[in-house]
Amino acid sequence: MSRPKLYIFAISHYCEKARWALDYLGIGHEVHYLPPGPHRMTAKRLGARRSSLPILVADGQTVQGSAAIVDWADARASTESRCLTPDDGREECLQIEKRLDRVAGVHTRRYYYSEAMVDHPRMVRPIFTRDLSWPQKLLVRGTWGVVRKLMIQGMDLGAEQGQESRRIVEGELEWLDGLLSDGRRFLVGGQFSRADIAAASLFAPLAAPKQHPTYASLQLPPNLAADLVGWQERPSVNWVREVYDQYRLT
Fold it and tell me: How far apart are the first and last CA of the chain?
């Protein structure tokens, strides 16, 4: 069988979630970074139903979306001692992941892009061109104005929208603080699970853990950077860093 191929954006926290699951479960794979905009053609060529990343191609299958990729990886883990979807607390685990995907992930992204993409797009472009070939980098530079406009429209970005997402993100941090207030090490039961990977990866832009391949060196726009200073000692943000310290080893 050919080696699984994972197609991602370097900046995407959903892509980080999928990549982390594959790494943790010991599933070897090739990472392919795609340029924004032209990635739509690649997604179509791969047979994906939507243009969003991540996309995994393996065993003649095209698997799209971080949660679906975690499902795929769990079913093919190389060792029985590791599983990201525990039998005990399975539904709670999946419900926490679903909430994080639909709320924290969406609004952390919108919160960041509403300032970065609208007011400081030059901060964003280098991340999107990371690890691309030179022809791909030139393509991003040449189409950046169009890509930026489409992202602003598609994600409903702007100052007011950014503040709305900021309030939602802060509420989700409070929710996670509450879960952790009983001293638990993991979000569900007694083992590391997909709920932990979802929470840590989707909140990673706020914690900038040193193990993250992108966020450790991500340049933040000024208002967002100032907001994050006030959140650095939250239990949830400290927990994200601890999870990266202990479990993001690859």
Answer: 23
